[in-house]
Amino acid sequence: MIVAIVTFRLPQPAALADMKRVFSGTAPKYLNLDGLLRKNYWLSEDGLRAGGIYVWESKARAEAFYSPEWRQFVAGKYGAPPEIAYFESPVMVDNTAGRIVADA
Predict the structure, then answer these.
(1) CB within 8 Å of 18: residues ≥ 6 apart
(2) E strand or H helix at 7, and its extent?
(3) Which of 30, 87, 103, 104 fits as disulfide partner to 3, beta carbons 3.0 to 4.6 Å?
(4) CA distances from 96 to 27, 38, 76 (A)
(5) CATH of residue 47
């Protein structure tokens, strides 16, 4: 599994309630997305950075999704281009499902 942490710097501080509405509007496009196991949206406490923490089956799936068109969408929606960092995730504890995943 691969964890991708996507970060974008906002042009001005955003309120949590406002970002919750924005994130709720984009969340449906990630439902049933091939290769995506989980996505958490996030907003920094100062409201100046936001993004997503994605858990993917593979880096290939992640890289295929983060296309130039997706990057352009994010830059247009949030006013800043995304930065993406990848991390290997050999084990995931999923308390909502009551299981430990060691292989996607």
Answers:
(1) none
(2) strand 2-9
(3) 87
(4) 19, 12, 33
(5) 3.30.70.100
Per-residue pLDDT of the chain (104 residues; tens, 9 = 90+): 999 999 999 999 999 999 999 999 999 999 999 999 999 999 999 999 999 999 999 999 999 999 999 999 889 988 889 999 999 999 999 999 999 999 76
Total number of domains constituting the chain: 1
Domain containing residue 61: 2-101
Q: Helix/strand/coil (H, E, C) string of 27-95? A: HHHHCCCCCEEEEEEEECCCCCEEEEEEEECCHHHHHHHCCHHHHHHHHHHHCCCCEEEEEECCCEEEC
